[in-house]
Design goal:
- By secondary structure, the chain is mainly alpha-helical.
- The protein has 2 domains: about 35 residues, no CATH class; about 60 residues, 434 Repressor (Amino-terminal Domain), CATH 1.10.260.
- About 45% of the residues lie in helices and about 5% in strands.
- The chain contains 5 helices and 2 strands, in the order ββααααα.
- A two-stranded antiparallel sheet has the order 1-2.
- The longest helix is centred in the middle third of the chain and has 22 residues.
Length: about 130
């Protein structure tokens, strides 16, 4: 079987794909490429929250219906949020945490990312004669 164009299949481990120019697994290359991408980070954070809530519901033998009642939303809303984490808002996270008896916190921890500076915008020069006093 031929690998997709631009991808070579290593015969020693047929489950791992590599690009022709790198020895890193393709998935690792994508992770490296998007590591500092805010959308990628937000999806990861939302997934962590979803997994934590699901774990807590299982631990306490609670249902999504119970969580929905505590949050004051429909069960369909909870199911949607739990299955599509990128749509999760901070308000939804806060409601879930409060419903489970936790105080939500956002903590910046782990490895330090390379800082991203502000986007450069063209500067406007203001002539002295056009200034209001």
């Amino acid at each position: 079987m031929d690998a997709p164009e631009g991808i070579a299949l290593m015969t020693t481990n047929p489950r791992r794909y590599y690009t022709e120019t790198s020895e890193k697994p393709l998935l690792q290359q994508w992770a490296d490429e998007y590591r500092n991408d805010p959308v990628y980070i937000a999806i990861g954070l939302a997934m962590e929250v979803t997994e934590s809530v699901a774990r807590e519901l299982r631990r306490r033998k609670l249902t999504r219906a119970w969580l929905a009642r505590q949050m004051g939303v429909s069960q369909a809303h909870v199911s949607k949020v739990m299955s599509a984490p990128p749509n999760m808002t901070l308000t939804t996270i806060a409601k879930m945490a409060v419903a489970l008896g936790y105080e939500p916190r956002v903590v910046l921890k782990g490895r330090r990312l390379k800082p991203v500076g502000p986007k450069k915008t063209p500067s406007r020069k203001v002539r002295a004669s056009s200034r209001r006093r």
